[in-house]
């Protein structure tokens, strides 16, 4: 993957970090009401307002992880881009590995948060 592809994937990491970074404080404050656009939208979490709240509280730590992982990856990738020789083979591999790893970690964390939200909502 060339530097352009790595930076494109890094934009995806940044978008996921932004979205989770916006959702985390809303969930923590209890301000994210049931809606048709964002959130852990499973059959169980959508069953009631209480299930929605319980489910999202259960997903909170996973969303925090996804946000932090993205921020760390952005800093690491930009540092690599600025300080490493990205035209070398090792530099290209490092520049590609950081956003791939971060994006994968973010997706896994968001899925795990959805599973946790669904399980918690089913207890209500």
Structure description:
- InterPro entries: SdpI/YhfL.
- This is SdpI/YhfL protein family.
- Keywords: Membrane, Transmembrane, Transmembrane helix.
- The chain crosses the membrane at residues 6-24, 62-84, 96-117.
- This protein has one domain (3-122).
- 77% of the residues lie in helices and 0% in strands.
- It contains 3 helices and no strands.
- The protein has helices spanning 3-29, 49-83, 89-122.
- The termini are far apart.
Gyration radius, to the nearest Å?
17 Å
Classify the helix fraction into a percent range.
over 70%
Number of domains: 1
Order of helices and strands: HHH
The major sheet is characterized as: none
Number of helix segments? Answer: 3
Query: DSSP strand (E) fraction?
Result: under 5%
First-residue to last-residue Cα separation: 46 Å
Overall form: elongated
Mean pLDDT: 91
* Count of individual beta strands: 0
Transmembrane segments: 6-24, 62-84, 96-117
Keywords: Membrane, Transmembrane, Transmembrane helix
Organism: Dietzia timorensis
Protein name: SdpI/YhfL protein family
């Amino acid at each position: 993957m060339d530097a352009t592809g790595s930076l494109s994937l890094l934009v995806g990491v940044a978008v996921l970090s932004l979205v989770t970074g916006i959702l985390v404080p809303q969930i923590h404050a209890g301000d994210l009401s049931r809606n048709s656009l964002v959130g852990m939208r499973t059959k169980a979490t959508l069953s009631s307002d209480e299930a929605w709240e319980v489910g999202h509280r259960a997903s909170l730590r996973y969303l925090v992880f996804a946000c932090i992982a993205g921020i760390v990856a952005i800093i690491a990738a930009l540092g690599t881009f600025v300080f490493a020789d990205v035209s070398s083979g090792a530099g290209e591999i490092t520049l590609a590995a950081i956003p791939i790893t971060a994006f994968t970690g973010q997706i896994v964390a968001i899925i795990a948060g959805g599973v946790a939200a669904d399980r918690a909502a089913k207890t209500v």
